[in-house]
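Protein record
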Amino acid sequence: MPPPLAKPLAPDSAAPETATPGSATPGSATPGSKDSDGGVLAAAYGATSADSGLVPLTLARRAPREDDVEIAIEFCGLCHSDVHAVWGEWGGQAYPLVPGHEIVGTVSRVGSAVTDFAPGDRVGVGCMVDSCRECESCLDGLEQYCENGMTGTYGAVDRRNGGSITQGGYSSSIVVDRRYVLRVPDSLDPAAVAPLLCAGITTFSPLRHFDVEEGDVVGVVGLGGLGHMAVKLAKAMGAKVVVFTTSESKVPAALELGADEVVLSRDEAAMEAANRTIDLIIDTVAAPHDLNPLFRTLRVDGALFQLGLPSEAMPPVNPRALVRRRIAYAGSLIGGIAETQEMLDFCAEHGVVADIEVVRAEQLNEAYDRMVAGDVKYRFVLDTGTLQAPAKEADA
């Protein structure tokens, strides 16, 4: 779950590119009807206010510019951060808002300068659709840490395109600059790939940053959408995986996913037995919890990566727990474009995808309620083929 850190590009950076609207190579199945400039009216589901719920909407998607890729969306994952945004829990949200940043589809049109994608290619779009492309982070392939603010896939000001608000993947189509489009391997189920573009890369990035390899011991705290991906990816990297959970009912599920051991973190004896046994912990829990018992399970030079973002303050960290074993306490935010492509290729090589439940458009509000209640194993994915036809006029 990426945090609400995406902000508009600095006013003086990233001026809109000049390109002739409609200068695209036609594809075989452009979704929706075209406007006079070659743009498309796309069917969508989104919110018109914090309490409207998700309702049918129509989006005006721009015509592909020279570096753009137009995508006919097939599937879009549902992320818990979508709920926070739609329900206005992160404040300052512009409506109408179409969420969705786990997008998989096929290319329908490309701009005149695009040579790396062609109509019919299966592609994906994750949590960002732009960044400044000039700062040190962007030049290092770490666009998610753009020093001028990455542009989120939805709910962000799109400085290169007239200051419009980006609208996400609960829709029939989207247009994205080729630099932020990913190639989806043909061997993977496209519906089950969608959550990889958020939950997958969010857990892959710290595992790769820590250079996890065969023989390492990785602890995973929490077994939701992020946690189940952390288990699968760490196992695919050759690690021994230990799941920490407060719920005894999660034990069979963790073992079924491939965990080697499960530790009930409320069991003091079990936590004591885990002392100094873990190299790296991936903490996916988004509720306040005490980290100090987890630090005691780490070996010298171990690390705990915090991925979950509790809405309330966490219990304080005891610095002595870090100092005594040279432990690192770190955070991580999704991944850059190159690393996300690496993750997709790694998943194709090892047959890793998310465990999903596919939902229809009219089930989205129910799915949100079930997400909040934790009633999903482990990610919902919207089948965009169930969206209504677009209206004759756009809502956004």
About this structure: The two ends are 25 Å apart (CA to CA). Residues 2-30 have pLDDT under 50 and may be disordered. DSSP finds eleven helices and 20 strands in the chain.
